Amino acid sequence: MKALMFGWEFPPHILGGLGTASYGLTRGMSMQEDMELTFAIPRPWGDEDRSFLTIIGLNNTPVVWKEVTEEQVTKKTGKMMPASLYFDLRNNIYANFSYYPTNELGCLEFSGRYPSNLLEEINNYSIVAGVIARTVETNIIHSHDWLTYPAGIHAKNVTGKPLVIHVHATDFDRSRGKVNPQVYNIEKDGMDNANHIITVSNLTRSTVIEKYHQDPAKVTTIHNAVEPLSDEIQAIQSHKHTNDKIVTFLGRITMQKGPEYFVEAAARVLNKSKNVRFVMAGSGDMMNQMIRLAAQRNISDKFHFTGFLKGAQVYEMLKSSDIYVMPSVSEPFGISPLEAMQCGVPSIISKQSGCAEILNNAVKVDYWDIDAMADAMYSIVTYPSMYEYLKVEGKKEVNAITWEDAGMKVRKIYDKVLERK
Question: What is the DSSP string of 317-372?
Answer without folding.
Answer: HHHT-SEEEE--SSBS--SHHHHHHHTT--EEEETTBGGGGT-SSSEEE-TT-HHH
